[in-house]
Amino acid sequence: MPHSQEVAQASLLSVRGLTKRFGDFTACDGIDLDIRPGEIHALLGENGAGKSTLVKMLFGVLAPTYGAITWQGEMVDISSPAKARQLGIGMVFQHFSLFEALTVAENIALSMADGSSISAIAEKARDLSAAYGLPLDPHAHVADLSVGERQRIEIVRALLQNPRLIILDEPTSVLTPQEADKLFETLEKLKAEDRSVLYISHRLEEVQRICDRATVLRHGKVTGACDPRLETPGSLARMMVGSEVASVTSNHGQAFGQKLIEVKNLSAAARTPFAMTLKDISLTVRAGEVLGIAGVAGNGQSELFDVLSGEYPVQDQDAIHLCGRPVGRLGINRRRLVGAGFVPEERHGHAAVSAMALSDNLLLARHRSDAARFLSGGALRLIRHGAVKAAAAGICRDMDVRKSGEDPTAASLSGGNLQKFIIGRELERRPQVLVVNQPTWGVDAGAASRIRQALVDLARQGSAVVVISQDLDEIFEVSTSIAGISDGRLSASFPAEGMTREKIGLLMGGLHGMEGAHAH
Ligand SMILES: Nc1ncnc2c1ncn2[C@@H]1O[C@H](COP(=O)(O)OP(=O)(O)OP(=O)(O)O)[C@@H](O)[C@H]1O
């Protein structure tokens, strides 16, 4: 028996020559991969390398153009997710497939083929979530849950199927460090039960910590395989990107200008029973300043973003000033007109309409603020398609957005590349004020450093920037001042220089009267 056939026989899952073409574009190009029983196998690669396309083929979401898949020694045709589940393959996607109006248990019921009652499913989900350390209320409505909680539903849903292989596409990008630690414990339990995990992540430290082997993809091809524990984050990043990753130069020590964002004693009642009430929020951000807001998911970050952006205007016009103007009651478009830009946390369905082209997504966000540029004069206000497409192409060039066509749909971009486009769409206007929520979720090391540098540079040119993030490394890299949010309350902000992880931890934990630090 040839060696590669022997390896395939001993593997839980083996793929040979797996290829996926979208028109002329080859997203996966002759991929060979073997996953052994009871191993945690990392799949690494920069944004657009083909990782999601590969795992979608393994889960029956996409049909391979050609290539072979062997499961427990047998050649298989994974024609649908139902077939994948039946074989024993579970998957947690990077973008969740949950119905917001339904409860956790109802969502899980939709993917169960055995016709169990909702209460039985709720019970099982509760037991499983307790056993694996993934707390979840089966009767909560998905619409009221944070991204981290939504992900737990997906994980529990996959575990309920008792899979032999579970595929996780960037599972920790939305988790706090504590939640991530819990997830790693879950993965160790799965491994001890001789189940395998295929683990996609851009966080190289965690890959080193938990993965037994790693396969690296670049431009749709396997470029290397290694034992990640014998590598460094730097050497892994080089294998993925093909070059060194630039470090971000921050604005420490720069003098700040006028106040561009001012919020005074703002309170906002929770809109739903599961949302957070904002309590007496005050903050000031000056020209040149990047305020990093750290916090554990679900402590009011999205509610704060909503009131700052005008997605949910507040009663008191004077409670929020942007660029020197009272804007509390204004909606998002009118705040853009004042000179502000916003990037929400969820890219699909919130920051971008997946089924629409990039240029249409650009127009949707900026038709009011850039009417003179994108619409003709006169009563008709016709769309200047040429100008919109040229601007979209320029953004893709500036942000190095890798895509498979001239002006593709947002859905066809890899997650990280869509994020680069969405950030670029705001930066291109050079807003005086920019508020971003989790700006580098699911973005590779090279692209994350590019986005962070762009935020720092915007502030350097005289804008005020707010970065809401769960990623403390990101907070340290970009911020000139740091605040913590917990239970709907924002701490005072402190100069980033002199801050430590421990001090931020106290702010995130709600100990706002931090000793030994001086607010400004
Ligand atoms: N349905 C599609 N139609 C056209 N092109 C697509 C489609 N799906 C993916 N692609 C392209 O295939 C390439 C690989 O995308 P994929 O999502 O697999 O990357 P990835 O490695 O998972 O990236 P990320 O880390 O950003 O999630 C990208 O250039 C993407 O634009």
What key attributes describe this structure?
Rossmann fold; 21 strands; binds adenosine-5'-triphosphate; alpha/beta; 6-stranded mixed β-sheet; 7-stranded mixed β-sheet; 2 domains; 520 residues
Structure explained in plain terms:
- This protein has helices at 3-10, 51-58, 81-87, 104-110, 118-131, 147-160, 177-192, 204-210, 233-241, 301-309, 332-338, 358-366, 371-374, 385-399, 415-427, 445-460, 472-478, 501-508, and strands at 13-22, 25-35, 40-45, 66-71, 74-76, 89-92, 165-169, 196-200, 213-218, 221-226, 259-268, 278-286, 290-294, 320-322, 325-326, 340-343, 433-437, 464-469, 481-486, 489-490, 494-495.
- Residues 513-518 have low confidence and may be disordered.
- The protein folds into 2 domains: 3-241, Rossmann fold (3-Layer(aba) Sandwich); 259-339 and 429-508, Rossmann fold, CATH 3.40.50.
- 34% of the residues lie in helices and 22% in strands.
